[in-house]
Amino acid sequence: MVLLQYNEFLTQVTILAQKVRNESAFTITFKQYDGIDKPTPREGRPPHPEPAENLCLIRMKAKNKKLSTVVKKSDITKVMESYGKIMKANMDGLKKVKRVKNKTKALQG
User: Fold this and answer.
1) How far apart are CA 21 and CA 44, in angstroms?
2) Which of 33, 44, 91, 106 could cysteine-pair with 57, CB 3.0–4.6 Å?
3) Which residues pair with 67 in a beta bridge?
4) Mean pLDDT (whole number) for 19-42
């Protein structure tokens, strides 16, 4: 897994999303990250220190390619705005759901 800066990560997400548009799918996950990569210490040992700032770990997986980035709390709004624009640009293959008016009227009354 490649750990990138968030600007570089977003450009790679754009490129990969366009590549896999017709062939397959990709997943993006968001997770709270405390910066600790080691397992919890055993009993009798001092615990890990508390993180100074909240972080967010963002991962992307498409076929055999894996990317990740760690974003600080202060930068999360910029990243989410850019992420939203990327998703709107690359999610044009979704089909509209046809709604039937008769069923909704039947359920109400």
Assistant:
1) 52
2) 33
3) 2, 60
4) 82
What is the token pair recorded at 16?
A: 């990969």
DSSP 39-106: PPPPTTSPPPPPPSS-EEEEEEEETTEEEEEEEEGGGHHHHHHHHHHHHHHH-TTPPPPP--HHHHHH
- What confidence tens digit (pLDDT) does each residue in 38-93 have? 777 788 888 777 767 889 999 999 888 899 999 998 999 999 999 999 888 877 76
Which residue reads 């700032």 in tokens?
A: 53
Residue with tokens 């001092």: 46
Contact 51, 34 (CB under 8 A): yes
Task: Supply the pTM of this predicted model.
Answer: 0.71
Burial of 46 (0-12, 13-18, 19+ CB in 10 A): exposed
